[in-house]
Amino acid sequence: MKKQVKFGIGIGVVVLSMAVLAWLGYGESKTYYHTIAELQTLKGADLTHRMRLGGTVQPGSIHRFSGRVDFVLQGEGKTVPISYVGSDPLPDTFVDNSQALVEGRPASDGRFVAEHVQAKCASKYEAAPGGDRSTPSDPTQRSTM
Amino acid sequence: MDVFGSFALVLAFLCAAYAFVGGVAAILTRHPLLIKSARQAGFATCALIFLATGSLVYLFFSDNFSVAYVVSHSNRDLATFYKIAALWSGQEGSLLFWSFLLSIYVFSVLLAYRNKNGELMPYVGVVMAGVQIFFLTLNNFVASPFKVLGTPAANGAFDLVTRTDGNGLNPLLQYPEMVIHPPNLYSGYTGFTIPFAFALAALLARYPGEKWIHLTRKWTMIAWCFQSVGILLGAHWAYAVLGWGGYWGWDPVENASLLPWLTGTAFLHSVMMQEKRGMMKVWNVWLVFTTFMLCILGTMLTRSGVVSSVHAFARSSIGTWFVGFLAVIFLVCFTAYIYNRDYLKSENQLDSVVSRESSFLFNNLVLLVACIAVLSGTLFPVFSEWLSGSRISVGSPFFNKVNIPLGLLLLFLTGVGPLLAWRKTSFDSLKRNFGWPAITGVLAGAVAVILGVREFYAVVCLTLCVFVAVTIGMEFYRGAKVIRARSGASLVASAIDLTMRNTRRYGGYVVHMGMVLIFVGLMGAAFNRDTQKDMQLGSSLQIGPYTLVLQSFDQKAEKNYTAERMIVEVLRDNKPVMMLYPERRIFHGNEPSGTMVAISSSWREDLYVVYAGQNPDTQAPVIHAYLNPLVKWIWFGGAVVVFGTLVALLPNRRAVLVLSGAQQSAAAPPLTQVLNPSMSLREGHD
User: Are residues B606 and B665 in the same domain?
Assistant: First the structure.
């Protein structure tokens, strides 16, 4: 029995310490996905989370200031003003009507302060393996079989 | 040709269905003709899939722009090299390519064992046919690559449309790595089907464990090798092409490829426990089942976008099919296990905490915990949505916090495990085997601390890398010395001779050495630096010992893109060292731009320079420079891993004759001893 106890302790130590580290890492990096409509219904502590929003960039809403880029993201008929404050230049794909994913936190004045922006144009290519495919803009497709 | 391809796929589906049903009937009736016909149907399935794939390749080469898949992924200007890559650049083609690679494996297995292992092969054939049926269902009915373009006419008929040119291949995929990375990764994913088929077949047929493990060892290693190469090539592509300065971002798709690699590695190690000591039978069977399910899951994550990836926004319906298939696999495996679990009784028990067995046990524990951590982190958005309604994702800090210590623990076991004796290791042998390695390792760590390295994990990693490298070096040295004493050859020749006498063991050491080199490279990430600056002509940017001076900045129109080019002079100690040419390509039309990273790579560090776009206020070009130490060691280590795997796949020089004799006599217990005649070199090891 003594051997089993030793093994049990060894396994327990590994698993437990990993669980603790996993919990710490989770707390540090968890990010909520929300839709724009959901954002407006969030209350209290939920508004302090780090979160990710997806939507379409409203045409003509991009305004560049020094150290900040403002734009409006729209989706499901709702809109939210975004202030991008990150240090990386915005991707070239970030233009009017592009799909964008922003990551950051809501500010108290109703704006959303984003630290990261990813954007994707309506592309004629399918996405890279690793990405997902967008609907091809071809006419109707039909199988020969 | 599209009609031909479609027909081939439908016929392949029918043949696979026959191979499955006929195979089941053959198992039940034991009729030799049925067994033969099921096997022939298996061959026919593979041949038809080869034909279908060939016809899709032909459609690409003949620029047939009436086929939707060709239009979406190719154009007339596309280089021949990339027309082959276009085959797997989209959903439908990738799935056909999966079937194609699987067919190569299935064909080889059916051919290699057509007159052998009579009682097992019908089961193996049925399992392989089952997997093929699933993918052929997708190829035929869900994501056919042979769909043609057309528009509905006024009378309700369907008019075919032929485009004059295609849309072309995504420029991000037009890199040599992208031509060889997917086939490698997919060969890994599909290759694990073979050990899975043998394991499940052996369980169903109650076939002796050490025999199926012996049969599948080389198949598992081939799949593992492809998977390793695929992962590294993917990392290299991300590093050299995507231009974000790193090679691994814990992206769901990257994680998906890592998961079966982790369990596959665990399986490769834990089967040795079963071969040598008759232990861990249940564990091994479930490991190989899990590995296969993770391969299917990996394909699903890659193809369906269930979890939003860096580049994934939309979702596809194909995931449902994969979830269904996974459920079927699990149910079949579980039922087979419940019915035949008595056949998996362990023959031995663990004897001591300090033994080879326990090192394998902890190796498996570490790999499995890492797998669970990566899996749960990857699927966290999906699970959290089910459980709490909100979609929560976790990022790199989560994965790094768990996997860095686990990786180091694994590295430690890599050094310790192979030198521990089976059953129980004496203190004397510990001292003899680990004295010098431990001393040199600690010394190396101490020197690093004195030189000013303060990153805890980096110091531990360095200590362990030196420790493991010395244990491996000593193993080669000791063995070679014995041979040199007998033959009088040089030490190097003796080491080669030693390796060829027991390729499995010494090839394994070479693989371990490659992993050590990879860890050295990963350790460099602790010292990564980067800086970003708006530049003017002649202005400079300082990173580490380097000064980057912008010498020229211009735009040049090319055939289908405009290149924004920079010429950057690199100075070190005020002396010019080299010129770098980072570039950005703005493709015409509404397409993503491409970053051409300029990398100057040495054993010490990579200087990685990206043209990061223009500052919107000042229109000044922005340089983003990274200094990534030791990255080259990762790619070199990968090459060593592949080399070691190939060595381990070679037959032993002396054991060849003995082996074939042993197989005929089929005497199981002495087999393991006969297999390793050179073991007498050192008692108690391996």
Answer: no
Taking the C-alpha atoms of residue B546 and residue B90, their distance in angstroms, rounded to an integer, is 42
Contact A118 B366 (CB under 8 A): no
Give the predicted TM-score (pTM) of the model.
0.87
What ipTM goes with this model? 0.73
- State the total domains in chain B: 4
Tally of domains within chain A? 2
Domain residue limits at A26:
1-30
Q: Would you say the C-alpha torsion B140, B143, B144, B148 has a positive or negative sign?
A: positive
From B309, B396, B405, residue closest to A130, measured CB to CB:
B309
What is the radius of gyration, based on Cα positions, of chain B?
27
Distance from CA of B72 to the nearest CA of A (A): 7
Contact A34 B314 (CB under 8 A): no
Based on its alpha-carbon atoms, the radius of gyration of chain A, rounded to whole angstroms, reads: 22
Specify whether B13 is located in the same domain as B89: yes
Q: What residues of A are in contact with residue B161 (Cβ under 8 Å)?
A: 139
User: Which of A29, A69, A126 lies at the smallest CB-CB distance from B394?
Assistant: A29
Q: Write out pLDDT tens, residues B197-254.
A: 999 999 999 888 778 888 899 999 999 999 999 999 989 988 988 778 889 988 888 8
Any domain includes B638: no
Listed as ranges, residues in chain B with pLDDT below 50 are 309-314, 655-686
Distance CA A104, CA B419 (A): 50
Number of residues in chain A: 145
In A, minimum Cα distance to B253 occurs at: A130
pLDDT tens digit string along B535-546? 888 889 999 899
Domain check: are A8 and A65 in the same one?
A: no
Please name the residue of chain B whose CA is at the shortest distance from the CA of residue A7. Answer: B353
CB contact under 8 A, A126 and B91: yes
Task: Please tell me the distance in Å from B229's CA to the nearest CA on chain A.
Answer: 17
CA distances from B211 to A34, B56, B282 (A): 53, 40, 15
**How many CB pairs below 8 A link A and B?**
210
Q: Are B309 and B379 members of one domain?
A: yes
Bin B168: left if φ > 0, else alpha if -120 < ψ < 50, else beta.
Answer: left
- Asked if B365 and B449 sit in the same domain, the reply is no
